[in-house]
Specification:
By secondary structure, the chain is mainly α. It folds into 3 domains: 12-201, Growth Hormone, Chain: A (Up-down Bundle), CATH 1.20.1250.20; 207-263; 272-510, Growth Hormone, Chain: A (Up-down Bundle), CATH 1.20.1250. It is built from 22 helices and no strands. It is globular, with a radius of gyration of 24 Å.
């Protein structure tokens, strides 16, 4: 084990720090962009490979499962191999599997390569955060967290725009090929710039049973969430079996990891009320926030006639205002109670979500975009101070495990939220369609349309389209209303945490 000075930032010149910081920010942007860039391209990929749309969802599922499994292992991997080495090989593997994804000609090959992408990409987001904190001195870390938050917000917002444009104008293969020059640049820069801030390595025993249990229960849960909507949820024995296996696996995993001397995932960090309330707030907020990320682009394309690129653009305004506010929030973190900042930011996002709950089918582009634009002011207030709260609530030696668990719960919350929101939206559409049909004066409406020159079939189709459009928007508004209530709850939960005291050592935040 190599001993290194605690203040690693002293080993780098200001120019060296700037170049390294830009490299890490670019790598984080690439990884978070890939979370959403493939989503709008699934129909193109499915059509090109000659598979059904349901089979095409495995392209998304395989990546999500692999990433969800790998993220909580990041702390252990960084201690075992070193943060810089883990980052470099993760980026190299991500680039290689991106190339193979783009070259794939069968469903089996692209699924296997997406699993490789998820396994390599999972540690990159927390590792970029870790290394940024090690590169910059304490007085600059608030602003650095602002930069990191900006890339984290911008990537998912631009994903649908970039993915939609590439799929419509080039070929779906290029949504993977565009990663190659970025990955190559980041690997080269990491090898040149980051060795001075490498972390110590320890030969840790491998908890094989804990690892197997982790893979088992997360895999069962993620697959259940992804295919549940297409299999009528618990009306299908397969979904019931997956739910039972996930629950049993989770319980056995908890027991094993809490009693294992060298657990692969340290669950003991949950004994700190500050950490627990912070990550619970994180899970609630990200789950509710992603209700809009999931529903709005689909509604715009299905009901409002938007292209994939324009639907992505309408949702991207959040990132634009967030980028303006993030540097300011970074400077305020050390001066203002972080609980107040988080609570204010989450409540603001809740108000913007409540604003959306009054949309109609007459909404124009700016009616849809303005709540997104205003929401961006609250996002940095939530994301940046939360790291200070959660990591400031655990012991310094537990920071790596706490940060890994925080990233894992965010990923899990997004997966669960996506399934719940899409199911609730679909069920709501059926309920409200029946309600709307029950209030229509069918004969009078058909007669009126006939008098305007519509044939009976055209009149029936017109009425059906209007009913579908209204049921979709009303159901979506109810989803937003529930999401707003969840956000207001999250804004209150954060006050269960005691105020962090002293400086937070985020340099170990794997």
């Amino acid at each position: 084990m190599v001993s290194r000075p605690a203040e690693t930032f002293t080993l780098l010149s200001p120019r060296h720090r700037l170049l390294a910081g830009l490299t890490l920010a670019l790598s984080n942007f690439m990884v978070v962009l890939d979370l959403t860039i493939a989503n709008v391209s699934v129909p193109h990929i499915a059509g090109n490979l000659g598979i059904s749309a349901d089979q095409g969802t495995w392209i998304i599922t395989s990546y999500a499962v692999a990433e969800a499994i790998c993220v909580p292992l990041t702390g252990w991997l960084a201690q075992r191999f070193g943060a810089v080495r883990l980052f470099t090989f993760g980026m190299l593997g991500f680039g290689l599997f991106s190339l193979l994804c783009g070259l794939s000609m069968t469903l089996g090959m692209i699924v296997v390569c997406r699993i490789g992408q998820g396994l390599c990409g999972g540690p990159l987001m927390p590792m970029s955060q870790t290394l940024l904190m090690r590169i910059f001195p304490p007085e600059q870390r608030g602003r650095v967290m602002g930069l990191w938050a900006m890339t984290t917000l911008l990537g998912p917002a631009l994903g649908p725009i970039v993915g939609g444009y590439i799929s419509d104008n080039w070929s779906w293969h290029w949504i993977f090929f565009i990663n190659l020059p970025i990955a190559a640049l980041c690997v080269f820069a990491a090898m040149v710039l980051l060795p001075p801030v490498e972390t110590d390595r320890m030969k840790l025993p491998i908890d094989y049973i804990g690892l197997a249990l982790l893979i088992f229960w997360i895999g069962c849960l993620q697959i259940m969430l992804d295919i549940g909507r297409d299999h009528d949820w618990f009306g299908d024995p397969l979904i019931v079996a997956l739910a039972v296996l996930a629950a049993i696996g989770f319980c056995v995993f908890l027991i094993w990891e809490l009693t294992e001397e060298h657990p692969i995932v340290d669950l003991r960090v949950f004994r700190h009320i500050g950490f627990t309330s912070g990550v619970f707030t994180l899970a609630l907020c990200f789950g509710a926030y992603f209700a809009g990320i999931v529903v709005i682009p689909q509604w715009l394309q299905i009901s409002m006639g938007y292209t994939a690129a324009w639907a992505g653009l309408a949702t991207a305004f959040t990132a634009m205002t967030a980028m303006l506010v993030a540097p300011i929030v970074g400077r305020l973190v050390s001066k203002v109670d972080v609980r107040l900042m988080i609570s204010t930011g989450v409540a603001w996002i809740g108000l913007m979500t409540l604003w959306r709950a009054h949309w109609t089918t007459d909404a124009d582009f700016w009616t849809i975009s303005l709540p997104q634009l205003a929401q961006g002011f609250g996002m940095p207030l939530f994301m940046i101070p939360l790291t200070t709260l959660t990591l400031g609530s655990v012991r310094p030696e537990e920071t790596a495990s706490a940060a890994g668990m925080q990233n894992f719960l965010r990923t899990l919350a997004i997966a669960i939220s996506t399934s719940i929101v899409l199911t609730g939206w679909g069920n709501g559409q059926r309920v409200w369609r029946n309600e709307v049909v029950g209030t229509l004066h069918g004969d009078a409406t058909m007669a009126d349309l006939a008098s305007r020159g519509f044939t009976q079939e055209q009149a029936r189709q017109t009425v059906g389209n209007l009913v579908d459009a209204q049921s979709q928007v009303v159901s979506m508004n109810h989803v937003f209303f529930i999401a707003a209530l969840v956000l207001f709850l999250a804004a209150a939960v954060v006050w269960l945490a005691p105020r962090p005291t002293g400086n937070v050592d985020r340099s170990a935040a794997h």
